[in-house]
Amino acid sequence: MATFRTGQKTHQAVLPQRPALESAPADTPRIRDETGRGHHTTDVVPGAEHVRGETGTASPGGSGVTPEPCGAGEKGREAHTRESDPCVFVLDKRGAPLQPCHPARARKLLAKGRAVVHRHTPFVIRLKDRTIEGSEVDGVELGIDPGSRHTGIAVFTHRGGERRGRYAIQLDHRGAAIRKKLAQRSGYRRRRRTSNLRYRPPRFGNRARPRGWLPPSLQHRVDTPVSWVDRLTGWAPVGAVHVERVAFDTHALSVDGPLEGVGYQQGTLHGYEVREYLLAKFGRACAYCGATNAPLNGRTKWNRTRNRLPKSHTLDALCVGKAEEVAQTVSTVLVAGCSGRGTYARTRPDKYGFPRLRLPRTKRFFGFATGDLVRAVVPKGKKAGIHTGRVAVRASGSFNITTAHGTVQGINRRHLRLLQRADGYAYTIREEKGVSRP
Fold it and tell me: What is the domain-level CATH number for residue 381?
């Protein structure tokens, strides 16, 4: 007959019940790695089953058998994926790219005076006592995941089928802004032609375009990744470039006339779920001839899901091509937003297209230009602190700085220090998806 303590509180509708039993240690707790500890009984988790890996903080450590932590499974593997800080690009004393190094090693080289800062963002150092002939360079590879709004670029090393991420960049395109500006310009011209203005003949409509011409918004999406590949080739010893081939049925827009009916509603990705099902059913081989190793345009997603990585543009770039295992990812991503290098217009129009103000004829004031990367140290006042970001200049000397947390207005130019000249991009840092910082 079971006996219960009289002071034990239970619900009135059920009989009194003991909590879930917890196994007691059979050995005497003397050594640190033994299963029985003095604090073991205080960390009892009711209902926990040791064989299923549900033991709490009282699990044995060291040489003892430690079950899987809470959240074991796919989420647990994602949380324990090896992450590392972005590497630092290294140049020799003549400007030739060497093997990228860890940030800690770069700090030591700078502290000893063996290296100088070559570029701030992305961070590049130049050695003063080393040449590429006397260095061992293993080389790196690039992975590109193109997109209409964002393009992911990953710098990684690939040895023996194992990839290790070294640097990650996300390009934010301005194709939508270019299209908006072109439509706005067309509206201004159309208004001038239809406002009963004299000496404004209609524009010739049958204008010839050169071979290979693309709209400016699409040409921008092509030129930007190419220019970044050229940049990275000058900072790192790039040996190969892997690009994900994106399918887009452009000939359907012009060959057979405009799309109508079902062809207009169902694009090239219609039924993609059925396609993946059939690939898995037939072992990624042809159901008729049995051909294998054919380009199926799904390798990137398959590599990413097989390595249990979350969806992001930079991780897709890391998984482009033949990647058996992704052993290491980068903890932070450099986001490069295409901001442009300014405008040729010397006026600002109103909503009707008439100029409402005039812009200054000079671009640089007090040694700064809009788009420069600066660091401001404000000693006192409402805006006291350190602000690092993109600057917007004024002729009065009161500048605005756009940081990762917002725009700080009205900072005097005396508090500013130039970090890097404007290169057409606005840089910010964000954490990679699936990476949690303490």
Answer: 2.30.30
